[in-house]
Known about the structure:
It is found in: Cell membrane. Its main location: membrane. It is a multi-pass membrane protein. This is G-protein coupled receptors family 1 profile domain-containing protein. This protein is mainly α. The protein is about 80% helix and about 5% strand. It has one domain: Rhodopsin 7-helix transmembrane proteins (Rhopdopsin 7-helix transmembrane proteins). Helix 9 (about 225-240) packs across helix 10 (about 240-260). It starts with a helix and ends with a helix.
Amino acid sequence: FGLLPTILSSGYNIDPSTNNIVLCRLRLYFAYVFSSWQSSYIILAAIDRTFITSPNANTRRFSTRRLITISMVGISVFWLLFMSHGLIFSQIIQFAPGYFVCYCQPGLYSTLIAYQSISILGVIPPLVMTIFGFLTVKNIRRVQRPAQHSRAVDTGVIAVGQLHALHSKDQQLIRMLLVDIISFTLCKFPSEIMTIYSQITQYNAKSVEQQIIEQSVLQLTFLWYFVDNGISCYTNIVVSKTFRAELKRIFSNAYAFYFH
């Protein structure tokens, strides 16, 4: 409903959703839902990392598996219900002879969808992610100060090793969070710019060629929109030594299980 249909549509002109209204509505509905889930889960992860790195013990208590599970279920159900309008107001639109696009209903609804996309995906998530990212960095720096003092005073080998391990994992956690935020913003930004442009020029007279060009650019930005969905694993491999070690352990265990 996201990257694969866009690749098939843009690269191979294969798009069943332009011939079937049910597929069209399901595609847009789940595209809305999955996009909202992604941004919400990244925000939830940023909040959890802020809690877990807090020097305040009472704040750290909010970082529990039970609370995260409840939050994820609540967020999932909320977006499933909130985006249900995509099952009703999506339709197949003809932009030119023989050129059909599965898109939201023109008029007031498309305007509302544009502002929804700009606010929910283009403005609010990066802003919230940035705020909690800075709070997490601030917490880490506050934790590091007493840790550095302890290393200067305590010469015990065990204490030094524990402090160093904690410091290393926290730094990797921060890098993974910042990379997620940066990749999310860079991948979503072009699509939101195109959405703003479409809203500004929606009442301008456009030739058939211009409409086709704009739709092609929109498809390209929509393709780029989903790139960060598939690169998180690779960016984590690059920035996190612990992630690489855990991934290697998983593959080693799988190899030993299936081939020995």
